[in-house]
Amino acid sequence: VGCFLLVLTLCRACTCLAGAISPSTRHTFAIGIGLFLLLIGMVLAGIVADAEIAGEDRLSSVLSLAATGSQ
After folding, report:
1. What is residue 39's predicted lDDT score, i.e. its pLDDT?
2. In whole angstroms, what is the distance from residue 2 CA to residue 30 CA?
3. pLDDT value, residue 1
4. Are 8 and 14 spatial neighbours (Cβ–Cβ below 8 Å)?
5. Alpha helices, DSSP H only, in 11-48?
6. 30-60 burial string, b = 16+ CB within 10 Å, else e?
7. Separation of alpha carbons 9 and 46, rounded Å
8. How confident is the model at residue 28 (pLDDT cuts 50, 70, 90)?
9. Could you tell me the pTM of the whole model?
10. How far apart are alpha carbons 8 and 17 in whole angstroms?
């Protein structure tokens, strides 16, 4: 895979391929990646969790996040 990407880069085919993708599709990819990263952050903060975690832990995570602006 790495050699293939190197060949694409050296032949400047990446620019042609990137230009072939419509702007709306590029924005959609960016939004999807951003939402995925948001979900990962929310899971790590304990906001989104399994049902086995007590509600008190989630509440304290949300309150500390709201009070400090960061974790």
Report:
1. 86
2. 23
3. 82
4. yes
5. 13-20, 23-45
6. eeeeeeeeeeeeeeebbeebeeeeeeeeeee
7. 41
8. very high
9. 0.52
10. 9
